[in-house]
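Researcher: We're teaching a course module on how sequence relates to structure. For the next exercise, students receive a sequence and then see the predicted structure as tokens, so they can try to spot secondary structure elements on their own. Here is the exercise chain.
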Amino acid sequence: MQGLHVQLRSASPIRLEAEFDCGAGELVALVGPSGGGKTSMLRAIAGLWTPSDVQGHIRVAGQVWLDTTAGLQLSPQERRAGLVFQHYALFPHMTAHANVALAAGPAWSGADVQTLLARLGLATLSQRRPSQLSGGQQQRVALARALVRVMPAPSLTASPAHWPGVLLLDEPFSAVDAPTRQTLYRELAALRQNVSVPMVLVTHDLQEARRLADRVVIVDAGQTLQTDTPARVFASPRNARVAELVGIQNHFEGHFFKDQAGWGRLRWGDGAPSDPGLSLRVFDKNKIDDGTPVTWVLNGEQVDVLADEGSWGALEPGHTRLRCQLLEVLSLGEISLCTLQPEALPSQTITLNLTTRLLDRLQVQAGGWLQLLIAPGALHIMPVRTK
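Model: And here is the predicted structure for the students to work with:
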């Protein structure tokens, strides 16, 4: 099997219940809160952290790095893992060139190392020590050091199609400015075209994960909660905790009722006798029973915002039109954080990020009214879990 496959279980010193894979040439992002176990997973893959009670396996390109059942465990030196540490971890007494050359294999010549440093914008800085480099420059040296562990030397005329290694990136872009970040993004893109190695990225930046990753793995308290494409995870979180971790602002309660074939009704409200509730059309995937209490999220990216007065035409099947009052507008430059209150359900509010241009075009301010056109795909419902 090409690529990386990880399956690990441990109860101490921290809980670990991780299972995910990363194909050759694929970039998978581990996303979750601080202290959630993301960096521990990277260190376990690299062989730098192995709990005494760990159970499971780590395989890369068909090579077994860890198999507790078979009693097999490769040392860090035997694993072709390039790890970019969050705080660089460069040797302070060595130059940038020497730091990278130390990690390179015998196939890498001094000229090869210098060529790689030049590609990362470090050609004139290769003889400086870490204390003479900025944080962003140190980060690029750390990336170069990781790359020489997982990619063949440029001077090689032939290299295997699938290199038995993995690139592990622990928030590699957190300390660099925007232009440098773009340079590193391009370098990663070029690497993915030239070398087919799995890449695992730890990041707290949700937008960065959506921009760079083929798939994201949501991690919390040492456990992998959901793995899927960024679009799928953000639109259809597996449960309320995943919705919270990916920053979904519109998270509500209600009840699901079956309707016509393939369709259901989401009764939005808290169930109180004084709450009139509001019905929204949703897809029925035959996974939730009639009358089930649910939590649900609204994906604001699939909501159209229209002027309160105008000719809208007939609704598309399953769409819901919702008249809302704009309660608050907090300007954040080109984007405004808007709080809206449904006219038919004043006990609830919806939060949307709307562009200043859209608000100007609609000629609406706080206190005014808007129409929301909600597609059924914008609603994702989840059964309420009972303990």
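Model: If you want an answer key for the exercise: The mean pLDDT is 88. The CA atoms of residues 336 and 354 lie 5 Å apart.
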